[in-house]
């Protein structure tokens, strides 16, 4: 092959590489912003394969009946466990809580590291998650506070009979801790999700 052919071939490879979708990091968020977004789901119904809720007062929160995944949902809002965490974490990218999205399952959160990474359970902090995936079934929740090996406060879309809740729970040793990429580290003593300096 001529030198010209090699150069043309390399240029074509470079153009093709530029055309591939990027694996950009999710938008920077503080831990408090993630928790505030997550708390917004509390009271909404469990909705298998979805991730959508509203901040509007008085909106119908939906209802779920039966056993999932063959459950029946009524209403426009609700989320399942993985749809909820993806929306609270804003992965793979920013999206309104009112936009229905379900980009990842518990399989993805457990086995992959697209916009998150594995951490040791003892290092779990506010806005990290815990996920398990035994035998094809799974669950994921957002960790808020407490002892990651004992009683903790969690936000989760727990199932058809429970809906999306915030409360105390434990988690078996089958759960693995995950941390979202691009956590913003700023001083936020008042917990409003804004850097203290910007509150002035």
How would you describe this protein?
- The strands form three sheets. The protein has a six-stranded antiparallel β-sheet. A two-stranded antiparallel sheet has the order 1-4. It has a two-stranded antiparallel sheet with strand order 2-3.
- 34% of the residues are buried.
- It contains four helices and ten strands.
- A hairpin with a 5-residue loop joins β7 and β8.
- By secondary structure, it is α+β, with helices and mostly antiparallel strands.
- Mean pLDDT is 86; it is low at 3-22.
Secondary structure: elements and pairs:
Layout: H1 3-19, H2 31-39, E1 51-52, E2 63-65, E3 72-74, E4 78-79, H3 81-89, H4 106-111, E5 116-119, E6 129-132, E7 139-146, E8 152-159, E9 163-169, E10 176-180
Helix pairs in contact: 2-3
Please state roughly what percent of the residues sit in beta strands, choosing from under 5%, 5-15%, 15-25%, 25-35%, 35-45% or over 45%. 15-25%
The protein's oligomeric status is: single chain
**How far do the termini sit from each other?**
66 Å
- Write down the Rg: 20 Å
* Total beta-strand segments: 10
The share of residues in helices is 10-25%
Low-confidence parts: 3-22
User: Could you say which overall geometry the principal axes of the C-alpha atoms support?
Assistant: globular
Task: Summarize model confidence as the mean pLDDT.
Answer: 86
User: Biggest sheet, open or closed, and with what strands and sense?
Assistant: 6 strands, antiparallel
Widest beta sheet: strand line-up: 5-10-6-7-8-9
Q: What's the number of helices?
A: 4
**Structural class estimated from helices and strands:** alpha+beta
What is the chain-wise order of helices and strands?
HHEEEEHHEEEEEE
């Amino acid at each position: 092959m001529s030198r010209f052919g090699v150069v043309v071939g390399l240029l074509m490879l470079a153009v093709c590489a530029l055309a591939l979708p990027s694996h950009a990091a999710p938008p920077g968020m503080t831990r408090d912003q993630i928790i505030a977004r997550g708390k917004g789901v509390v009271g909404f119904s469990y909705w298998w394969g979805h991730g959508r809720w509203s901040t509007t007062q008085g909106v119908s929160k939906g209802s779920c009946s039966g056993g999932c995944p063959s459950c029946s949902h009524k209403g426009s809002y609700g989320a399942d466990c993985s749809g909820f965490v993806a929306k609270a974490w804003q992965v793979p990218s920013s999206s309104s809580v009112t936009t229905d999205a379900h980009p990842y399952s518990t399989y993805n959160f457990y086995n992959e590291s697209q916009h998150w990474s594995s951490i040791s359970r003892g290092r779990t902090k506010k806005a990290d998650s815990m996920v398990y995936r035994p035998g094809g079934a799974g669950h994921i929740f957002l960790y808020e506070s407490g002892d990651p090996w004992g009683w903790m406060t969690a936000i989760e879309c727990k199932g058809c009979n429970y809906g999306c809740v915030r409360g105390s729970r434990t988690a078996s040793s089958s759960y693995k801790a995950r941390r979202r990429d691009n956590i913003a580290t700023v001083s936020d003593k008042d917990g409003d999700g804004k850097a203290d300096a910007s509150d002035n």
